[in-house]
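Data card: per-record layout.
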Amino acid sequence: MLIVFDIGNTHIVVGVFQKGKLVLNKRMESNSQRTEDETWIIIKGFLENENISQNSIQGASIVSVVPAITDIFVRLTEKYLSLKPLVINGTLDPGFNIPYKEPSQLGADRICAVAAARKKFGGPAIIVDFGTATTYDVINSKGEYLGGAIAPGVHVAGINLIENTALLQKVPFQFPAQAVGKNTKEALQSGIMYYALDGFEGMVRRLRRVAGKYTQVVATGGLAPVIMEMTNEIKYLEPNLVLEGARLIFENLTKKGKK
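The structure for this 259-residue chain is written out next.
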């Protein structure tokens, strides 16, 4: 079995694969103050609830955009699983060329999402991850990775607006019944959500000028299902895209290492 830790700014996803199939998918809050021992107690609970023995885990991979938490999970993996984890980054060979002057600057989550999308859908494709940041990554018709864009995520933009205005209060991040709000709550929801939706659709149109008019859109991330309900631009919804990409990269590099 392979265990994957997808460490984001807001949440950490723990995935376990058995013969290529995802058999565990759990989520916890990101917390750089939690020790490896405290973190392991949570992970051990995930495993036990699914009757997965820690001794059955033969490989580990870390996909992280939070360096302080990366170190915690490296120590945790070595201490409790007796494994040296593969920490995915732009200096490794993900199976495609990274056209950055400094490939190490490309986020591990984006690397994994591109790897999975290339394998599953080919190109041309635009991969959109609706997370703390909303990221866009572009694959051309030859399957080549071209680069992408990073925008504020829906939660980040909304919370920043609310925290920097004295009279506005937090609201659920969901679409209101209509665009014209009849109270402050509805007005906020309309502005935040439709701003995000229109920004997404605008970016897709702009990126298609490079990738091609009929480029398919693959969406992942926590808010992807919410956005998908309001647009026809998303063709595929893939909630486990980053985990799948981490598995592919781990397996490919492991095979190369054995040759």
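Known properties of this structure: The beta strands are 2-7, 11-18, 21-29, 59-64, 86-87, 125-130, 133-139, 145-152, 216-220, 236-237. The mean pLDDT is 94.

See the next section for split statistics.
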